[in-house]
Structures are given as structure tokens and as C-alpha cells.
Amino acid sequence: MTNVLVVYKKNFESIHDESLAQLESILEEMSTAHHLRIELRARERVRRADFIGRDLVIVLGGDGTLTSISHNIDENTPVMGVNSHPLNNHNDGSVGFYMDSTLDTFAEDFSAALRGKAIENNLPRLRAIIDSTSGNRYTTDPAMNELLIANTHQYAPSKYHLRRGKNDTNQQSSGLIFSTWLGQGAWFSHSLDLETLDQLRASIQDDEVNSHYFVLARDLGHQQRKKEPWSWVDWTSEPTQILSDMHRGYVVPDGWNEVHFNRGASITVDLNAPKLRLLTFRQSMKERLLKSIGK
Fold first, then answer.
1. DSSP 19
2. What is the pLDDT of residues 194-208, one digit of tens each?
């Protein structure tokens, strides 16, 4: 018996309801032949316990559906994404960068996953460890794309002491964005001018994509960018340490589950969160990213 959990997007748009009905129909037809035990959960109601003991997790929706629940999934459980509203079928659809399957390919892809014939992508994820002044420690949910560290008040600057390796500095910016290599296709790439982004990408070695991450200080002053380029934008494998000088700040992984901290808190960011075992079927995630950025 293969234990399968389906997590789906439920926002009362008919397109997603129709996609769920089609997916259920396909799974029902395949259930007897493949000895499946299938449970369905709306992403708004899913809990960590729902993922324990699963042989496969199917996520039906878009990238936001996957990133919103991925922190519940351990690094040993395979996950496959099914785009419920593909952009190539609808002008208002989802790109679904992490969602390699559609309903048109699902039956074939699902069979390949059950036979162990899928492409396995073990995706590195970011984490932040927060140490408060009272001695409490908190580790954030892992981030597939990016982490934001900033002042909770958007109109106020983010002030902090920054340290990476042998370098350290005091800094004032609009906040720090940390991005995985795959995450450069999201928020990070839109926060830099194209010339700087191209130069940064050109410096990346193939063997670094699973061990390094990006750091960007948003809206950092031009003088500090020139004087301390490592503190503005960097591609690094070393942990980044931040000592907060903000009355109140927060860490936001992948746009979900804000974690707040106060002045004096210490935050360490690295790439040591549990990996995500994502299945694809036509291209690896590395190939998908290079294609999307025209490489």
C-alpha cells in the first residue's frame, strides 16, 4: 500500500475546484492497480502531523501553495507539484516554477514517481536561528526561495550589525534578502539591476549551487556599496550574523509565518535547513532555472 497525501489550493475559484475533481478522478482510476491509500487536505487546514508516514506528497496549486506548506515536509518524503492553473493555458494562470506536472501529464508522471523513475531534486533551504536577549532560541521554518529580515515598520530603516566571515560592519538599509540559487528566479532577481545581476550570475561555479546562497541589502547607500561590496550583495557559503539595532524586526521565510525579534537579538542565517526532495519529470530544477533565465 502506497500512502499518498494530496494538498490542494482552496480559494473558491472554480478553476482550482475543477482541477481537484480531475485529479481525484485520475487517482481513483489508478488506485486499485497501484494499491493506493489517498488522503486529501486543503492547504489552509493541513498540519505537520498530516505529513508523517507518507510515501508521497502531491501538491496541487501553484508555487505559493508549495512554499506555504513545504516547511511541514521532511527531507526524506518525496514531493511532486501539479500546476492547477498553468499559465500556458490561461492568461491569468500560474508559472508554477516548482510544479513540473499538469493534469495533462499527471497520470504518466505519477506512475513514474511510483516506479522510482522521476528526477529527484534535493533542494537546499535557508534557515534563520534567532537568539533573544533573554536566552531563548528559535529556528524559523526553512525557506525554498528567500528569507527577509527587516524592520516591521516599512517606513523605518533596518539597522543592524552585520558579520560574515572576517568582515563586519554597521548597516542601515531597507532590509536583507537571502536567496537560494533556485530562488534567484523570484524576488531576489527583481531587486537588482540587470547588469549587476548578470555579473553576479557569471561568477557562480556549477559546484556551488547547493552550498552557496545570495545576500542583498536593499537600498543600501551608494558609498557603502562601493566601500564594502560584500555587505551589499554577495554569493557565499558562510553563515551571516546579524545583531539587531531595531526596536522590532522580523524574519519572513518565503513570505509566510513571520517571526518577530527585538533590539539586541542575534540572528544567524545559513543553508543548513533540511533539504526538500522535489520530483520533476522532464527537466531537473537546475535545467528549469537556467531555461527560465535564458542560460
1. H
2. 899 999 999 999 999
